[in-house]
Amino acid sequence: MTTESSPGQGAPQEEPGWAFRPRRPAAGPRSYGERHRTEPAVAWDDRSPAEPYGGSSGTRWDSTMPLQSPRPPAGAQEDMREPGRRTPSYTRPGSESTDRAPGYPSGTGTVAGRAVPRPEPAAAQPRPHAGANGKRAPKTRRVGRLALALAVLVAAGGAAAVLLKQEDAAAVASKNLTQAWQIPAPAADDALVGSWLTDELLVRAGTRGGLRAYDLTDGKEIWHAAASATAAERGAVPCGMSPTLSAQGIGTVAFGKDGSACTWLAGVKASTGKILWSMPLTGKKHPAAALATTYVQGNVATVVSENYLGGVDVRTGSRVWGYKARGHYCNAYDWGADGIVLVDDFCLDRKNRFTLTAYDGRTGKVIWRKSEKAHSDVTHILSGSPLVAAVHTARQDAVRVLGTTGTGRKLAVGDDELTPGNNTEADHSARLHGDVLVTPASASGNMVIDGFDTTTGAKLWTHRSAALAVTTSGADGKVYAVTTSGAPQLVTIDRRTGETTPVAGLPTGTGKWNFTSGTVYVTAEGVLELNALGSNGGVRLYR
Predict the structure, then answer these.
(1) How far is CA 87 from CA 37, 51, 105, 374, in A?
(2) Alpha-carbon span 60 to 70, nearest angstrom
(3) Which of 129, 245, 408, 479 has the greatest number of CB atoms lying within 10 Å of its CB?
């Protein structure tokens, strides 16, 4: 490295938060491993065509660099090669590789007006498990509407902590629920983007159905947000949705021409569907639409996209903070969750070239930053506080409870691949219950639920063939799940022992339970089933 000032210094700087260059994601389903971001032709990138682009969320370039920058000093371009970039090393059938996101477009980019070839994409590879063994691995609306009373299960011999819980055919609920109403899917290819649940309404976002609210009592439509959009924005569909609402009942939704190309973000009042404000996610220097995720913490909504990373006031849309790279020649990968943003970067003009940094989602302040020898890929963030994330490095895969310095204990996940939701990014059912993390997972391609002690890292139990449910503020705070094999049942799970107690049976005939992936809510009204794909049905309420 020379001691000269970095190329690009003194150049016009963009407002912090905007990325150097946008990326256009490949169209595709919204399930895990299929809904990935893509990466542009990268300025000053001389990596060989055989070298894969790592990371599942694309590359972010320094917001202070102009779109076409002067060539670096002599010798710098050769140094721009990022050491430690991985090549695919392990794959397993039925999963996807974290080494390379599928659908990377081919083509060229420009460096100081010169065309730069981009490597052709490799075929999508299965993702390994994120394992610790080195393998890839509401308030109650109407009292008495439905009392989800527990049918006590008396287990002979006591309930001890277990590592694997099998289905107990003798444990059968004493009562059964029936379908109260159904909202048909708008189309077979409609994909669930997200949902909100209030005391009275279910708000559902889908790639074909748009953003709509339904009365929990009878399933009737209350509002459709498209009626509030401007003429230029009509026809846009949701492509990202905050998992939660603010205390004022405001959430954020990203819209675009399809479910993976977001062009604007809006603040939406959940009770009325009114769009309070909107902001563009593209611009003259960033014209290509890109995938975006958004999260609400307090009065700040974070926007995590390949064009923009920052926080806005959820009430007004005004900017609170914007990401700014450490140097002038940096690329970065970003991931978000409630209250947290992780950024993995490589900066050519900094002594510590590789770093992994955690930012506070409300303020944008650095929580911790640690130097690394190569890139880290964050497969999933399972909890924001404490931060629990599945991280892949050149040396290992591990799910860790990360402390104040970015280091922490591993969770003993074995060969399971932990996911924040039930086989879809639209679901966010992974939860901390005290010091126990209860999370959906995939084991040999099958849906399971795992429980982990976050203080020791030990796996406490595993439930096979079960989907984790989300409880509302009107529920009793227990861990609920739905069995997915045999006769479906709603059960509660003891967070420490994994012991189950049947609550109610779900229908198997007319109006049968048909859940395979998506979100399950346990509310004072009953059990809500939101399927991830329209081909599996729309929304059903069981009482």
Answers:
(1) 19, 6, 18, 13
(2) 19
(3) 129
Q: Which two tokens stand for residue 37?
A: 């971001």
Task: State the Cα–Cα distance between residues 364 and 16, nearest whole angstrom.
Answer: 11
d(CA 84, CA 184): 49
Distance of alpha carbon 401 from alpha carbon 413, whole angstroms? 12
CB neighbourhood size of 242 (10 A) = 27
Residue type, 409: R
pLDDT in tens, the chain (543 residues): 333 333 333 334 556 776 533 333 333 333 333 333 333 322 232 233 333 333 333 333 333 333 233 344 444 444 444 444 433 333 333 333 333 333 333 333 333 333 333 333 333 333 333 443 433 333 333 323 333 332 322 233 333 333 445 444 447 878 899 999 999 999 999 999 999 999 999 999 999 999 999 999 999 999 998 644 454 455 689 999 999 999 999 999 999 988 889 999 999 999 999 999 999 999 888 888 999 999 999 999 999 998 899 999 999 999 999 999 999 999 999 999 999 999 999 999 999 999 999 999 999 999 999 999 999 999 999 999 999 999 998 888 899 999 888 988 999 999 999 999 999 999 999 999 999 999 999 998 889 999 999 999 999 999 998 999 998 754 566 899 999 888 899 999 999 999 999 999 998 866 677 788 999 999 988 999 999 999 888 999 999
256/276 Cα distance (integer angstroms): 18
Both structure tokens of 408: 């922490």
C-alpha separations of 499 from 90, 173, 464 in Å: 35, 15, 13
| Order of all β-strands in the sheet with 397-402 | 377-384, 387-392, 397-402, 408-410
| Integer Cα distance of 383 and 431 in angstroms | 7
Burial 133-148, CB ≥16 within 10 A → b, else e: eeebbbebbeeeebeb
Label residue 235 exposed, middle or buried (CB < 10 Å: 0-12, 13-18, 19+). Answer: exposed
DSSP assignment of 336-384, as one string?
EETTEEEEEEEETTSSS-EEEEEEETTT--EEEEEEESS--EEEEEEEE
